Amino acid sequence: MEDLRLNVALLRRRVPNLTSAARAVGLRPATVSNLSTGKIPVGRAEVRTLVALASLAECSLDELIIRGEKVEMMETGIKALDLFAPLTKGGTVGLVARPGMGQLVILSEVFYRLREQGHATVLLKPEDNQQGVSDILDAADTVVESIKEAYEHIAQLGTQQQVLFAADRSYVLTGEIQELQERLLNIGIDSVTTFLVDLKGEAVDEDLPYGPLETLLQFDADLAARHMFPAINPIYSTSSVLEGAHLDQTHLTIQQRAQKLLRRYRELRSIVNVKGSDSLPATEKQTYKRGELLEAYLTQPFYVAEEFTGQKGETVTLKETLEDVRKILDGASDTKDVKELSYVGKMK
């Protein structure tokens, strides 16, 4: 059963207003989202849920459920992203954040890093000239003004190389993104990884704001307020790559252990903020310290921010990230100070 996953692309094309459609047939949008990203394995889904989704998409269960197809990860060298919510090649990535949490910075950084790996980057220019848009305009190889222009450009590029395409949520609400993706698939272009952002910050308050996704990057207000970037929430960010059949078991084990530690650490932070760290039992003090170290380690200097931070950008391979995180989890870094791990690359 581990090689089963939802045909997210089909679901997205057939049911663009999935939130309201799901509710209308008695499904929780959160459940649909978790099935799409693999947070809930298809094998554990209720039969009635899958039947309802197939009915909404007007397809058979065989069309809705894909068997034996491996999801390919795109490694970015960004520790938090590669560990908790790996990008899915050819999938759709949704960034959920309020303004000021760094979503455009991380999009610019991903564009920069993957462009170095040979990907072409295309941005559909947002209709509103909001704060930070100029930075992402500079990060893209090509900026297009319309869906029609995006289709023509990507159709040409997609036969030669992998394409990263980014657009604002406003184009999702009109259904134009879904139409674009379907037109590209109809001509055999499946090499496009789509990034959807929300410049107005409204997606935070909605279920399935982009429809079903292969990768969800949920940003965290607390991390952003403490200037711990990238402010990717390690608990709620997820990816279909994390399904057991698609991920190296070592990665999956370390990712789950890291989430468990950070979940408990966040609970303890609430206690420490009120009563102080001395109120914690000895075993919980150890958990708290390791959580602090891991949270600090997951910060990272970005290449696109060098001019503003004065710090050189750092790339950390997934292998190095897993090795370092394992050390923190196992206590091998307990003697280190939190400041030693803040905004570094690989742990020394």
From TrEMBL:
Superkingdom: Bacteria
Sequence ranges assigned to domain ATP synthase A/B type C-terminal in this UniProt record: 246-325
Pfam family, any one: ATP-synt_VA_C
Subcellular location: Membrane
Sequence intervals crossing the membrane: none
Entries under InterPro entries matching the protein: ATP-synt_VA_C (IPR055190), ATPase_a/bsu_AS (IPR020003), ATPase_alpha/beta_chains (IPR050053), ATPase_F1/V1_b/a_C (IPR024034), P-loop_NTPase (IPR027417)
The entry's keywords: ATP synthesis, ATP-binding, CF(1), Ion transport, Membrane, Nucleotide-binding, Translocase, Transport
PROSITE patterns linked: ATPASE_ALPHA_BETA (PS00152)
Family designation: Belongs to the ATPase alpha/beta chains family.
Name of this protein: ATP synthase A/B type C-terminal domain-containing protein
Species this chain originates from: Thalassobacillus devorans
